[in-house]
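Ticket #4471: structure output looks truncated?

Reporter: J.K.
Steps to reproduce: submitted the chain below (201 residues) through the standard prediction queue, then opened the result file.
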Amino acid sequence: MNLWRVASIATLVVVFLAMAYANAFAQEEASGGVIQGPSGATKIAIIDIDRIAAESVAGRALFDSLRGENEKIAAETQRLQQEIVDLQTKLNSEILSQDAKIRLQRDIDRKRTDAQRWVEDAQADFEAKRQDGEAKFQEKVAPVVEQVAQEHGIGLIFRATPGLTFVLDPTLDISPLIVKKLDETADTPGEEGTPPPANQQ
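Returned output as attached by the reporter:
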């Protein structure tokens, strides 16, 4: 999605709401009443996906899984690099025949190529797992957001995006409600990771 388009839409929404509240202010000021906001105004909220991921059980599980994969890649990369360093040290320090040096240098070059290919493949596999994990996590979050919105009469929800969304009122952030409901859903029998109850005869 074009970020400039998103920013423009968000700006138009903010301008529209500001005009609506300004109109309500003028009307209430003229009548001497208390400003309550425009009649029938849509209730707005903000969600922070990064916060939901960091604080929820499902999000932390995803982080732990990805961290474990990353640590395995780092350990194997270090091992492959050390093999090359050891061979390079042998090439430079030991007295070898010209043929032996040529064979050893070829072995070093081959190991470098193999190591580079392995790292590239491992990084691509990790990225695929990360994207798949994030997609599945957001699939879990979406119905929870909808449920919370219905329960609290929220008609419009913005996703907090650094540089695009500026939240001046922290009470608009319903992320804690989403985390609580998401964790409750994860603990519900029949959900993923929890076996359903046995059929009663």
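Triage note (M.O.): checked the attachment and the full token line is present. The first helix runs from residue 3 to 31.
Status: closed, working as intended.
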